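This part of the workshop introduces the protein records we will be handling. Backbone structure tokens are a discrete shorthand for how the chain folds in space. Once this layout is familiar, the rest of the handout is easier to follow. The record below serves as our worked example for the rest of this section.
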Amino acid sequence: ALISILLKPISEEVFRTKNLNGDSRLKNKNWKVTKKNSVISNTEFVVVLDPGHGGKDPGAEAGGYRESNIMLELAAAVKESLIRNTEFKVILTRKEDVFLSLEDRITVATQSGADLFISLHADAVIEGEASGTTVYLLSENATDKMSALLASRHDRSEILRGVDLSGLDSQITSVLIDMARQETKPRNEAVASFILEVFREKIAELSSQPLRYAAFSVLKSPDIPSILIEAGFMSTSSDLKNLTTPSWRAGFADALAEAISRWQIKDKQTK
């Protein structure tokens, strides 16, 4: 069955007189017209933030700081900004210094019904010098056998939301996963574009090549837009100072929250 409804605006007075006179149950209701900002009214939109590393895996280390701890603080700042500026539901893959496998992080996103997954990291270089923020998307060159590998490592009932792949032929599973990934790819590129646009406006501290592609396992969820952000280089003193300064983290968090809000509006319109 298909029901089509055409809505058009009328004044509150016309609405009250024209539509309510015929129903005595509604005549004396106190009707109010309210406006909501579409950015902050979607409480069903779920953002999963993934502070990189943790526990036995500290990540990069410099100046007595561990990447795992800095990213936990950065993720907390982003969560606080999202809660303050939107009504999105925000979930952290970890809230303390504990180890989570890459597959566990993907599972948290899937089981949480994530609409967006963002993994937060800080880079480091052994030779030379580099600075600034970089946004990573999943490398196309790394997707040749990814569907089959993902299916073999995960519980098939948890790979695609709403689709139980248990008992299906491996070839069929790979095709379904690849179809989901192809549908999600332009959404990944869109959210990365919004993030870089707002970062250029707000923090202007981007790396020389701010958008890159790599085969990060944590980005392999087929049907959830997923990106990885290297917030800065711990091997560079100026970046390390930024990463360990609460005010810089707050500015970074506000910029990221604004970018997510802008993308969510656009993404909602294109669905």
